[in-house]
Amino acid sequence: MTSLIAYIEGIGLLGPGLSGWSEGREILAGRQAYQPQKTVIPPPVLLPPAERRRCGEIVKLALATSTEAMATAGVEASNLPSVFTASHGDGHNCHTICEMLASDDRQVSPTRFHNSVHNAASGYWSIATGAMASSAVLCAFDASFGAGLLEAMVQVAVDGNRCILIAGDTDYPEPVFSVRPLSDLLGISLVLAPEHTPQAVARISVTLSDGPVDRFADGGLEKLRLSIPAARGLPLLHAIAVGESAHVVLDYLEETRIAVEVSPC
Amino acid sequence: MRPGSVLSPCATRPYNEFFTNDGLPLNPLLISHFTATSSIGRGLDETLAALRQRTPGLKPCDFDTVDLSTFIGEVADVDDVALPAEMKDFDCRNNRLAQLGLEQDGFAEAVRTAIERYGDDRVGVFVGTSTSGILETELAYRRRDPETGALPADFHYSKTQNTFSVADFTRHYFGLHGPAVAISSACSSSAKVFGSARRMIEAGLIDAAVVGGVDTLCLTTLYGFNSLQLLSTQACRPFDAARDGISIGEAAAFALLERAPQHPEPDDLFLLGIGESSDAYHMSSPHPEGLGARIAMEQALTTAGLAPSDIDYINLHGTATPSNDTAESKAVRAVFGTATPCSSTKGATGHTLGAAGGVEAVISLLALRHGLLPGGLNTTQIDPEAGLNYLLENREQPVASVISNSFGFGGTNCSLIFGRAAR
Known about the structure:
The structure holds two protein chains of two kinds.
Chain A: E1 4-14, H1 21-28, H2 49-54, H3 57-73, E2 82-85, H4 91-101, H5 110-115, H6 120-129, E3 135-139, H7 144-159, E4 163-169, H8 176-179, E5 186-193, E6 202-209, H9 219-227, H10 234-242, E7 246-253, E8 256-264
Parallel strand pairs in A: 2-3, 2-4
Antiparallel strand pairs in A: 1-5, 1-6, 4-5, 6-8, 7-8
Helix pairs in contact in A: 3-6
Chain B: E1 29-38, E2 41-42, H1 43-53, E3 59-60, E4 71-73, H2 93-102, H3 107-118, E5 123-128, H4 134-141, H5 165-174, E6 180-183, H6 189-202, E7 208-215, H7 219-227, E8 248-249, E9 251-259, E10 270-278, H8 291-304, E11 313-315, H9 322-336, E12 341-343, H10 346-349, H11 356-370, E13 372-373, E14 389-390, E15 395-396, E16 401-408, E17 412-419
Parallel strand pairs in B: 4-8, 5-6, 5-7, 11-12, 11-16, 12-14
Antiparallel strand pairs in B: 1-2, 1-9, 1-10, 3-4, 7-9, 10-17, 13-15, 16-17
Helix pairs in contact in B: 2-5, 6-11, 8-9
């Protein structure tokens, strides 16, 4: 069985009742109670003011979690390859476009159109940070976090480079909400390195698995894990927050899971 | 720059500061099978014949209720394709075209043979798309319940609209259980699939990969590109001095990637190099000097272990927008000089967006296999500013290696190098 190894140097987290990794780790480790609250996204200060207003929530979410992860890792984006993964793009923008296209006035605005591409977050992120390295932009519906983790792990293992995984999902308005009930935003960013460095917080070894998926004992966190695709990565963050060696199985495709051996550094 | 543009403060920094090529040559991958279906033909024979006879695939737009004065590259009879009964929830134009594409040239059979050889968990799926089955959602929005606003009950979000849909369809079509993903970085999507598949094979997670790109006509892209004033009112004219925009097309293209055999056959074709970069400049305009494009081409050459002079033909991204072709010509000149034969085949197929990288990879492989450098269609007066050896007529000659460029919205760039023999 092939296993992929990387060192986690930085973590970014934002979601309902999780306002960052430094606070979120206390909750995930069970040292503080989890209290669900609507996700609050900080303004994307890296972007020029006009673009701050123009870009969608998915862009702001990606900028917030990646900024936290890069700051804790002490790395800059300029030469950092990135892997973006999301179960869909900007749901509100998509809804407005579909509504306009079903009406008599189909004049979609240029901003709406360029915000509609699945790589909008990747594009704005590279503009905001000046990152010119490669950026992989993925979607695997509910398996999107796992798909992104695998892509980031093989980038680290094969290319021998540090890379940043930026996973995030946003909500959908009606009428799509009724068929895809995503009610809030959650993002996780991880800076991954091929070798141990002083800032490394954990070594992870990843394999494909058919073992049973790890679930949260806390009902609120388990509900969160199942309600937003990017939250399928939270059991990995839980293991890092606890700070002990652990074997974690994450949801991926229905019959294929991802097993992670976590060793604190 | 148009109003509302996003300009990076770093855009004026010198080129070398960004050029972080590791220079690691990659292990060539065997392209054991490939196929393409676009407006110029179903499968390789029709595609090759259309390229040889210079048959255009573009026509005045008559798609759905679209009232735009533009040309489209439509694949004939896509909506006649019937998905397997047990997969009916996947039914949408994009997955119908995916199936049509998979069933050409014995490609599906080749995938099944690979699955028998390697196992259903050792063959990965990497499909590029920009809009997936969004047309299904656009149509469903016309049928919302007048009282509640609800979408019709027969609308299946996850199996049609969702970006993963076409990769998920492909995975289910072959009963695969290995890694599967949709890559969606606009018009570089189905070039970038080669990069992700390569890494996963190299890492040992899989032994073979079905890579490809599928995108179909929809109102979002037609009206969206119209809003950016990037649609030509005629069949697009890449690198023409009077070029005025793109013609949108649709296509499905697939390739089966495997590790290179120890003793390759003389006719075997390989992925030799790949370069990926980001412009970090603007959401819908390329870097004016083509900086990201240049990095992608340089990196592709380095990973292939080839010099610019080793490349016999450049299949340009060549969308026929004023800004793309100008930026790309600057990048190509910077890397290759002015002599390397090049053309854009989008005058024939239209710009198939998320499928373009895949279609043009297949055209590059046909160029290698048949010694055909396809001249660009529709262009009459080559832009004197381009300074490239842009082919207006077909050329027949032995071809050893080809580079194919794909660039997209958000400043995403990918260049692929294909060749006849593994080094």
